[in-house]
Amino acid sequence: MNIKDAMSCFTTGVTVVTAHTQGQDCGMTCNSFNTVSLDPAMVLWSVRKSSLSHEAFVKAGGYMVNVLGAQQKDLALKFAQGTQKERFADQSVVRGIHQHPRLDDVIAWFDCRIAQVVSAGDHDILIGEVLDFGVQAGHGLAYAQRSFGVLTALDE
Question: Averaged over 10-15, what is the pLDDT?
Fold first, then answer.
C-alpha cells in the first residue's frame, strides 16, 4: 500500500483542463479541481511540475475547466495519455474568451484567468479567476479507487 492508494479513496469529479498558448491547444484529464471563492469566483487545479504540459499551462495565462458528464469516460481516458495532437484529434471545441478550448457536451465549464501559481511539493496549484462559465443538465463523472462511476443519492 502507498499514499496513492489512500488518496484514491477520496471520490472526486473528473475534468479535462485545456489551454491555448503559442498557437497550440493543450489538455489533460484532472481530478484535482476545486472551488476556492465565490466572490470573486475562483477555482483551482494542480499540475505536476514534471508533466510535459506543465510549462504550457503555466504560460497560457489562463485555462478552461471542462466538467465531464457521466457518459464521458472515453473523453477522460483520451485526455489522460498520448500526444496533445492525439488528444484533440476529431475533437470539436468552442473557443472561450482567450481561445482556450471548451469541449462538446460537458456538463459545466469555467473559463479562467490565472490569478496565482502556488508551488506545492511536486505540483503547482493554478488558481484561476472565473471570467465566464456555463452549465447544462446532467450527472457528473466520478472517480474513486482508480475506477469511474456516477454518484447516486442516498435514501433519506
Answer: 93
